[in-house]
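Lab meeting, item 3. Inverse folding demo.
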């Protein structure tokens, strides 16, 4: 596999931590991934078995699951994140955008796609594989930016869920449900809030909606990745953006609550299972 886009454009920093954001934020991300794993285990009630994480990033999520006694497997589209996962957490990831053949002989109690499904060029190839990979009562989890969210509608170009360079497959909830039905898969639960993404997605969208084109995706993401450079190059817009994290708090919290109530939250998290034991796709 050739060097991927995710390494060519430094999606991950080429260091031992494979950071995506400013390194001082890494402890916060560590806590949020721990919380994500804890809620995942509570929801699935898994005590043992196999878990497959597609697009596993630096491997933190799988690391936390392994600590609870699960057998973990994962993939990544970045050589940098593959190296980071091994160095940081002793997690071996397959370097591929597909599901490698080596993973098919076993069955998985859970398969997860944490903000990965929107990166897939051919998502149906993955969906078609799930019935072959899942155990009888296995679950697939997808979490994606919700393109029908309040933030997306406020200002898509500023909204941190957009990322058009990397998010090549912005599918809506009903489009995913239609695809799942071809393979006798169904959504059993939907959620619309993320501790990790909801606040920053709404913050970015409001910046664009209130202050205009200057606050676009690349600028806002740059604030999180290289804040000192942003402050040096564009001091006033950068300072305003950081201040807005606090002064927009009441608006963000109101929109977050309303998004959950109206199914227009900033993320779309789907829990998916087989409809029946017959796994052949419908025609």
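The presenter then showed the designed sequence:
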């Amino acid at each position: 596999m050739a060097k991927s886009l995710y390494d060519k454009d430094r999606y991950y920093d080429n260091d031992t931590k494979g950071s995506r954001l400013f390194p001082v934020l890494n402890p916060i991300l560590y806590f949020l991934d721990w919380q994500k794993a804890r809620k995942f285990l509570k929801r699935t009630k898994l005590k043992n078995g196999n878990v497959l994480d597609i697009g596993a990033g630096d491997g933190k999520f799988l690391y936390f699951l392994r600590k609870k006694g699960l057998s973990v497997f994962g993939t990544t589209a970045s050589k940098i994140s593959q190296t980071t996962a091994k160095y940081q957490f002793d997690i071996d990831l397959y370097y591929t955008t597909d599901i490698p053949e080596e993973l098919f002989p076993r069955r998985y109690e859970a398969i997860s796609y944490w903000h990965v499904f929107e990166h897939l060029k051919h998502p149906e190839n993955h969906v078609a594989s799930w019935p072959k990979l899942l155990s009888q009562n296995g679950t697939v989890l997808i979490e994606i930016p919700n393109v029908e969210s309040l933030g997306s509608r406020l200002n898509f170009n500023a909204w941190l869920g957009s990322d058009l360079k990397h998010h090549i497959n912005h599918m809506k909830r009903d489009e995913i449900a239609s695809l799942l039905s071809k393979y006798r898969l169904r959504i059993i639960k939907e959620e619309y809030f993320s501790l990790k993404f909801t606040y920053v997605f709404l913050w970015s969208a409001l910046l664009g909606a209130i202050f205009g084109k200057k606050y676009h995706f690349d600028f806002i993401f740059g604030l999180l990745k290289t804040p000192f450079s942003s402050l040096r190059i564009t001091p006033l817009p950068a300072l305003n953006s950081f201040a807005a994290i606090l002064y927009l708090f009441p608006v963000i919290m109101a929109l977050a609550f309303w998004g959950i109530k109206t199914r227009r939250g900033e993320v779309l998290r789907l829990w998916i299972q087989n409809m029946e034991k017959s796994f052949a796709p419908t025609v």
